[in-house]
Amino acid sequence: MAKGDTVLDRIIEHLDLPSETTRRGFLRVNLRTAAALPVLGALAAGSTKSPLIILDNAEGLVVADTTRCVGCKRCETACTEFNEGRAQPSLARIKVSRNYNFGPRGQQAGMFRGMGEFGNFRVVQDTCKQCPHPVPCATACPHSAIVLEPKTKARMVDQNKCVGCRMCQVACPWEMMTFDESAGKASKCFLCNGAPECVQACTTGALRYVSWRDLSKAIPIRRGAFPVTRDYKSAGCGNCHSIGKL
Amino acid sequence: MPESRDSNLVERLEALATEVRAASRSASVVRLDQVWTGSEDEFPKSLRSDGLSGLDDIALIRDHGQTYLYSERHMTHQYAEAAARAECEDIRHIIAETVRADSATYPRPTSVESFTEPPFRVSRASLNAAVDGISDDPRYADIQAVLASDGSRFLFSSHHMDPLYAASLAEWIAVGSLTNL
Amino acid sequence: MPTYGGWTGKTLRVNLSSGKISTEDTIAKYKDYLGGKGVGYRVLWDEVPAGTKGFDEANKIIMGVGPLTGTSAPSSGRTSITTIFPTSYPWELVAAGHMGGHWGAELKYAGWDNVIIEGKSEKPVYIAIVDSKVEIRDASHLWGNGIYRATASICQEMGPETQVAAIGQAGENLVRLSVVNNAYSHSAGGVGAVFGSKKLKAVAVRGTGAVRIAADKQEWKKLTRYALSIMGANNNNVVPSTRQPWAEYFAPMSRWTARKGLYWGAADPPVETGECLPEDLNRIGMRTMKATYDMGPLAEKYTVRMGGCSSCPIRCHSHVEVPQMEEKYGLSRYAASTCTRLTAGTSGFIESYPEGRNGLAAVEANIVAEHMLDDYGIWDNYHQLSRDFNYICRSGLAKSRLSADEYKSIPWEKREKGDPSFLQDIYRRIAFREGELGSVLGEGSGLMAKLWNFPEAYFNDMRVDLWKMGHPRHHANEEVGQTGVLVNMNYNANIMCHSHRNFITCGLPTNVLQTLGEKLWGPGAVDAPRNYTPMNEAKARFAVWSLLRDELHDSLTLCNWMYPLASSPLKSRNYEGDNAIESKLYSLVTGDKKDVAELDLVAERIFNLHRALTVRDMNTSDMRSKHDTIPDYVFDDPQVGFGGGPEGRRTPPSGPPPKPFTPGTARMDRADMEVGKDMYYETLGWDKKTGSPTRATLEKLGLKDVADKLAQMRLLPA
């Protein structure tokens, strides 16, 4: 392949890779070697900001068996009590209470014909899919505050960088972003350093921590996401995707 | 028999222990003479000695002239007693010893129906045949029956309780407690 | 002023007459009473005049939770509803209904510790609480509806995550035997009609806030896991119900029913309950398969899952799917409940069913009854309602007291046949006060007995099983001898105390219980089952412990069906639980360090306030003879101890009826129970002659103002 002059080419040059590497080869290699490409945007846009584009997948995932959920909600209180020191289901990064009465689709018909305690008794536990690239919440964050947790590669809100704009909240199709009103910061499931508190707390073994796999296409979304991203970030997409001239 | 430092012996015992643990996990005891080719005298008196570290969960239990093994990691002594007893061909022996144990321990009469459940799994036909007239056998003269008002049958040992007491406990278990939620 | 964890610090007051909504400082006013019943009693003492009746405008309703509610303290999802009870007869006195579910936790997340409801609305209303925003809203569109529809409607107005505590038509129609219900199957008995008298349809809550844990979060996690590690199954039964390899002991009546081959048969696909090793904290929720326990083996295939209250690892509410409910009875196939609310169909309304109490008709009848009770919001009163109906049928009183027309209108042939749809007719009559029968049945045993002029024999009929003041025996001598009798004496309504019974029936052998009991209360507290010995001080201490802990739990809040954790399933602990667990949970959550004795003192304060209210409102200090009464059958019935139920009791095998303190009977002895009362009062520091709290005791507990008031009314013992 002819040596080009794109940012990608310059990076390929920068790294010590076989000379016949194609773009696809680069991306494949990259997933193993470098989790993220902080430099792309800066090089592309020539700006001083370096947006984070998460490419690596998470190591693990919390999966939920809805037929074993007994609605005790100990997962929610464990999530916040053992992380923030207070019981606050609205802040919990695993979500059961919102589905408890009528199921994930809320109340569309009185009682008895839906899900949840007032339906067919099915309680659905919503867990973060730790989305593969593109990570909706991370992409929406104007300050690249959603980063990779080093041990598990969970997508995690860096509390120091978060400014509380809530753009991530509207970006997540499963409404898994929470917001700590008292701190003014977003929060999300970060897999508790590889030993998720919710999994430890579950009284029936309905929650398990397993190797990551892509559930983002398998689980129905809760809302039409409102993807928002800054210009310099979308320009960054062009480094791997052919989006033409902006 | 010297304390086991013989590595061949240790190896045999470790293999045996693996088998016994697996059996215990499945709620079964293992008959010694089925896993130990030597005589019972040659089997280490205790599996808790110096050269046998890591085997101290393996315990012995004797019933009806046989010796059985189980792992204390996966089975309690009381359950092992019942499981060993369950291996006996003589159903009356199974019934009598179990009833005596329950009557002494709690105290409580034993429902006849419970012998159809693990670890005994006696068929109803065999059970009825064994229970009828059990106290006629001089070995089991203390094993007596009492009927609750719903027709369910209980057995108790007269060594540990009298008929009136057994009847009241049986009635409570079978009928009274149901409406005493 | 130190800030505490646990409490939100805010108590809500809603005046339905004036519409005024105000906030009070929980810590300043009520910290010494914790919450729940404690706060309820304090409000009733301070604000509700002596002699106020249940339906009077001056009566107040205190829906209270406590510092532990909403946290992951195991089994802390309870709410107490304290008020003057309309079913307490002949004096309407202080009592509390209790409900689990999820309402209580939600109230804490909304930022409230208690809701005090006073006055009376002219029109039907409901109280809507969304965090700090509280409104009294019109409920005229909800009035006349059952609890199911009212709940669904309110959720449409307030959001699908709302927790709704509502009354049904029974409460609206001032049926004394009515409830408040939340989360489908969780009801507080006896209080529904008080809500109805205030035209209050529901209190609905949404909360997005937090309950702060004062302690370091790792320390708190360690304590919650420790508490979980020593808990048993439902009713803190600590051994399985069948012989299992991991267990030394088993007990046929244990609620630790999980085993290989027993399934939630209607799960999708079925879920095996399996072996639940006590060390496995991720299987605690599987231990209690209650549907088959309550309704027999047929219920296995109908069970979707188990469920229950917020934060509780023990799921004791069976959730069943019974398809034929729709076609046969026009009711939802989905039903949930536990204990008496899942066995009301087989407790006396219908004498017998084809194929017996575990047959299909019986199972269907139990589901029909559950829906009737939970939607109409009728209080079963621990099956007293069923037994009273059975009584009026078999005694001929139904025939003689009802007009010919009304008698004929009742579908008796359905009752004969064991047709569960009979229950739909009867419960409807009760909910809507239809006819003489409907009206009278809903009044409760005390008033009904008066209105229909029941013979004296009614009060001592063991098939009726009444204790006193319109409420039934509930875990008395039949299982816990004198201790049970002392516990039953104390309340003014349904005796909702399980501390003593849970311990005695936890499934451990007698000698183990005696060792544990000796450590807690001294030698002699525990007798072998059905083999009682004369009264002793240890038994009195056991009774006091049972009651104080019950008051404590209903104020903290914790579930008295699980706590106290007097025993545990762990052989490594010699089956000992932890008598100080409540104080440990309390100390870490609130940051207010109290050891077991200090927290028990708070419980004693709360219990004494209940006693003082009872004295005040009965206008006598002679509790001993006027209030602490024991039905004659406890002493006289020769068959006490031979079990039985509505079907009757069988005769003992031979010989004369067993005397008290002989093996095989639960009969008590009158003189012995007088000694029991003496010892009990002495343990509590109450006057022996009257059973009434003394000034010294009240002052020791920080209740000097109560002592002064009682003195003023000449109600302090001499």
Describe this structure in words.
The complex is a heterotrimer of chains A (246), B (181) and C (718). Chain A is α+β, with helices and mostly antiparallel strands. Chain A is 24% helix and 10% strand. In chain A, the strands form three sheets. In chain A, strands 1-7 form a two-stranded antiparallel sheet. Chain A is globular. Chain B is α+β, with helices and mostly antiparallel strands and 181 residues long. Chain B folds into two domains: 7-83; 89-179. In chain B, the strands form two sheets. Chain B has a three-stranded antiparallel beta sheet with strand order 1-3-2. A three-stranded antiparallel beta sheet of chain B has the order 4-6-5. Chain B is elongated and about 60 Å long. Chain C is α+β, with helices and mostly antiparallel strands and 718 residues long. Chain C has three domains: 10-206, Aldehyde Ferredoxin Oxidoreductase,  A, domain 1 (4-Layer Sandwich), CATH 3.60.9.10; 246-459, Aldehyde Ferredoxin Oxidoreductase Protein, subunit A, domain 2 (Orthogonal Bundle), CATH 1.10.569.10; 474-712, Aldehyde Ferredoxin Oxidoreductase Protein, subunit A, domain 3. Chain C is built from 28 helices and 22 strands. Chain C has a six-stranded mixed beta sheet with strand order 2-1-6-3-4-5. Chain C has a four-stranded mixed beta sheet with strand order 8-7-12-9. In chain C, strands 16-17-18 form a three-stranded antiparallel beta sheet. In chain C, β21 (686-687) and β22 form a beta hairpin. Chains in contact: A-C, B-C. The interface between A and C is large, with 46 and 57 residues. β2 of chain A pairs antiparallel with β13 of chain C.
Mean pLDDT metric of chain B:
91
Structural class designation of chain B: alpha+beta
How many discrete domains of chain B? 2
Rg calc of chain C: 24 Å
Biggest interface and which pair forms it?
Answer: A-C, 46 and 57 residues
Tally of separate domains of chain C:
3
- Low-confidence segments of chain C, ≥5 residues, pLDDT <50? 644-650
- Beta-strand portion of chain B reads 5-15%
